Sequence to fold (236 residues):
Amino acid sequence: MRLIFIRHAEPDYARDSLTEKGWREAALLAQRTARWKVDEFYCSPLGRAKDTASLTLQKLGREAVVYDWLREFHAPVLDPESKKERIPWDLLPAYWTNIPGMHSVETFADTDLMRTGKVKEEYQRVCDGIDGIIAAHGYVREGKLYRTASHNEDTVVLFCHMGVTFFMLSHLLNISPVNLIHGMFLAPSSVTIVSTEEVREGEAYFRCQTLGDISHLYAAGEPASHMGYFAEIMKE
Fold:
C-alpha cells in the first residue's frame, strides 16, 4: 500500500488560498498526478490545500474526501519566553535539542512545553485519522506495526500541510515529530511517499521512499518556494 502526502502549493496565508506562483505549482503538480493510478483522494478543509487539490481533481474528474484532522496541526502551546500562544514547532535548536523527552515519539507530548497545549490529544486525533484510512485498506495498527490479512497495492493521496504530514510520518515511522519537523523540510507542492514493506506475511511496516520531491517543478523550470524554511539569522 502506498500513501502519498502532498503539501499545498505556495500559500497566500492572508486569503487561505494560493499565490500566483502557487497556482503555477498546482498546475504542474496536476500534470504529474494525472498519470497516477489513485484509489482514494483525501484533503484538508483549508483553502490552500483544497485549491492545490482542485486542479488535479478537475483533470481526473474525481472528488476528494475532506477530513478536518488533515488541516494544519493545531494545538497551540505557551511560549516560555513571550508567554504567548504559538505553534508547537519552529523551536530554537538550543532549546529543543537539550530536552531528552523531545527526541522520543513516546515522550515528546509529555514535555513541559507540549503539556501547555493539547498536543497529545491532537496528535492522537491525527494518528487515529490516518490509521482509519489505512484500516479501510486492510492494514490494522498493532503496537508499532500493521497487521494485514492480504497484501494490496492501493494508492492513497492526501493533500494537506507540512506540519500535519510530519506528525503522520511520526506515527507511521515511530519517530518523534519534533526531530522530523526541525530536521526536514517539505517545499510547497512537494510529494512525499511511504509504502508498506511486508517482509513477513501478515506484518507490514511503512518505509519512506520519497521525501519532499518537487521534480515536477524542476522539469518545468519553476523554482522551488521556500515558504516555511527559515534561513535568516535572528537578531537580538
User: Anything to note?
Assistant: The CA atoms of residues 145 and 205 lie 5 Å apart. The two ends are 48 Å apart (CA to CA).
